Amino acid sequence: METKNVIIFFGKKSILNRIIASIFYSLFVFLLYKFFISDISFFELKSHKKQRSIVFGILIPLIIAIKFSISASHHFNFEEMKYRTFYFIGPFGYGFWKNFKKLDRVSTFLNQRDECEVNIWDVRKNKYKIAAFDEIDNAVIYGRDLATQLNVKFKERK
Prior knowledge:
Strand content: 25-35%
Transmembrane segments: 15-33, 54-75
Radius of gyration: 23 Å
Number of strands: 9
Keywords: Membrane, Transmembrane, Transmembrane helix
Number of helices: 3
Shape: elongated
Distance between the termini: 24 Å
């Protein structure tokens, strides 16, 4: 079995999330524009409360927009035994590689849609869905190969 790199992509955000994010990004750009074309200088404001309210008033829409538009995927590099959660917004993203010597097991599980999932579990009980199969036997074979490659135990569950 040649599994060097596995990327688990959770898909794009829903259209509703994208619409909400675009509204808040637009509000952020509008408030930033209004701030720079206004006659009031930020540093001439006497009150620190006014300065903070202006900064928070501009940053809150940006934070909400990022919340609605950020997505994540999991990258496994089995050759170097590394893992990362890659967070991205459109073409921009970041993620840091970590060693995953702390993996606990590989398991199979029959979900509600009668698909057999192959999951990797770490010692903190985080589950990462690797694949889903229609046939239980195919999932068991894939899970056993993956467990031997990762040197972890394999549990078959139904």
